[in-house]
Specification:
Rossmann fold; binds guanine
């Protein structure tokens, strides 16, 4: 039976540690780190995510600036708001909650967020910095995945790692982070042939496809570490991951549950990113 990796407990530990660092920042800078949050419309899942993020900010001492916009907000309104947050010295991180309503184009808006305030790490400049190994904002969910692997004591150097999913938000950046840790990385996706064979030889599996229980438990190599990023609501209303948890946990060495695995870590890493952005911002001010 696999060790269950408790993301909720690890996220709590991170928040506790952050609280002290945020306090120190506030004492030195004279103001708290600030996160600007933009939510367009009333998508219920997004509203829950945003509420969780804001609650976590409040508990840690980070100030969040909530900017709810109506579902018919225009591209230009969003551009103006992003410009305003880019200029605001009390805002060190900006988060544009995705997905946006279909009449809006997310890509130019993500490009408009200053790379120095890009707490989500979605700006192409930051994706590039990650790819060449420069310090940067890294997307929060991939950071959470690596933290959980390290907390569970998984050796990444020389490990065969298989990432299932090639999104810009999770698949590609988590592959970069695994590569930086010295893993041999394969990225699988919807066109991959014989996914079972790839997964079957992996020491580390990161599943981020958004398909309920697509990764079968019987594919998992005995002793492998399994990180499940999926959050899928199924017909009976319950939430399952991208991995068939019960069967996979019979074979894996360690595995994240859904919920309570990667999910809470995403928020914890967003808080860490915001503080890191605030510290960099203050350092730059001193150098001016
Ligand atoms: N929508 C779902 N996850 C995320 C996330 O991590 N960041 C943003 N901005 N939107 C999301």
């Amino acid at each position: 039976m696999a060790q269950i990796i408790d993301g909720k407990a690890r996220a709590k530990e991170i928040r506790k540690q952050l609280k002290g660092r945020v306090h120190d920042f506030q004492v030195e800078a004279g103001h708290p780190p600030g996160l600007g949050v933009i939510l367009v419309g009333e998508d219920p899942a997004s509203a829950v995510y945003v509420r969780n993020k804001e609650r976590a900010c409040a508990r840690t001492g980070i100030r969040s600036f909530h900017h709810p916009l109506a579902k018919d907000a225009t591209q230009q309104q969003l551009e103006q708001l992003i410009d305003q947050l880019n200029e605001d010295p009390e805002v060190h991180g900006i988060l544009l909650q995705l997905p946006l309503p279909s009449h809006l184009d997310a890509e130019p808006l993500l490009l408009r967020i200053s790379p120095d305030k890009d707490a989500d790490g979605f700006h192409p400049v930051n994706a590039g910095r990650l790819a060449v190994g420069q310090p940067t904002f890294v997307p929060c969910t991939p950071l959470g995945c690596i933290d959980l692997l390290q907390t569970a004591g998984v050796t990444l150097q020389g490990a065969d790692a298989v990432v299932v999913g090639r999104s810009n938000i999770v698949g590609k950046p988590v592959a970069q982070l695994l590569l930086a840790e010295g893993a041999t990385v394969t990225i699988c996706h919807s066109k991959t042939q014989n996914l079972a064979a790839h997964v079957g030889r992996a020491d580390v599996v990161v599943a981020a496809v958004g398909r309920p229980e697509m990764i079968r438990g019987e594919w998992i190599k005995p002793g492998a570490a399994v990180i499940d990023v999926g959050i899928n609501r199924i017909d009976d209303g319950s939430i399952v991951g991208d991995v068939e948890f019960a069967a996979a946990s019979e074979r894996a060495g360690c595995i994240t549950p859904v919920p309570g695995g990667v999910g809470p870590m995403t928020v914890a890493k967003l808080l860490e990113n915001t503080l890191a952005g605030a510290i960099r911002f203050e350092e730059c001010k001193l150098q001016e």
